[in-house]
Write a structure and sequence with these properties.
Layout: H1 3-30, E1 43-48, H2 56-69, E2 74-78, E3 90-93, H3 102-105, H4 107-115, E4 120-123, H5 127-138, E5 142-146, E6 158-164, E7 192-196, H6 203-214, E8 222-235, E9 240-242, E10 251-256, H7 261-270, E11 274-280, H8 289-302, E12 305-309, H9 310-316, E13 325-336, H10 338-349
Parallel strand pairs: 1-5, 1-6, 2-4, 2-5, 6-7, 7-8, 10-11, 10-12, 12-13
Antiparallel strand pairs: 3-4, 8-9, 8-13
Amino acid sequence: MNLDKIKSAFLMPLSWLWESFYRIRRSCYEYGFIKRHYFKVPVISVGNLSFGGTGKTPTIMWLADYLAEKNKVPVVLTRGYKGKLEKSAGLLRSGQRFRLNPHDYGDEPLMIASKMRKGAVIVGRNRAANLKRFFPEINPDVVLLDDGFQHLKIYRSFNIVLFDATMPLSRYKTAPLGYMREGLTALKDADAIIVSRADMVSDEERLTLKNFISSHFHHGPLWCEIFYRPMGVFNCHDQLIYDLADLKSLSVVALTAIASPDSFYRSLEQLGMNIVERVSFSDHYFFTQVDVNEVLFKANHQLGVVICSEKDMVKLKQVSRDPRLVYLKVKMDFLSGEDSFTQALGKVLHLDPEALST
């Protein structure tokens, strides 16, 4: 028996216990043994089954923009991971950019709020209580529950579950055996499956993933595939520095503090950039002046620039606004399933069918 088989045999019971706990927990909410909080407006949950890196934040931003187009006021309910307000509560108005610190609110809430045209972002771990507190002040038409698939305390009208197309099927096991925080049986509560980074794998791989996931549900939720369309390279002031045509052979030091750095590197390479060095930190890491100085020295030595994700730039510009620090701006777009998805949203939001095509 090799080492992998020994490890698997040892972790299998722990994985089974982990999955059983989540099954029981979900059933307790489903049958009313644990109280849920209900709100008078639709609640749309955006979540996943794995440990991060599936694209929840771009999906939230797409939804907020879509709702604004339909003249709806959204509020995003998020934890604000690693921010000082995570244990209490904080409110970010749409479009806020200045005099805000990611150390207080977290990086993703600041990025979401800065791009929203309407509504607000509520930060804090106790999401139900925070929503009740700020609801009269915001008076939203719809709630977007960030990372909400396991946050069962709040009843939701529509459940979106994201999967990363680039994650190997071998990792689809519950922790500690695999990378799943909840078993695939939980998909019985899913209304829509969104597969992110679908452009980074072949048609055959996408079909294999669809068949694998579909074997774990019988009700047939919506199936959508998305990718992240690059919009260009911008500086810390959100000014365009490089068009897509200018990126061929551009030498860069790739800096990341995100859950899926390999996908970010692949995006840069697909655009023709020459990655001379890769510098990765843990997800949600707060950069220091020492970190910035080191990567700028590397960039200067390699005659390149330091490029990061938009989420990373939220924290980087708090430390330095050096012109050599830039970020790749992307926008979520659909490969398939957009019409079915927007029609389902229209039913949840009680939109006029004619408004869906405008």
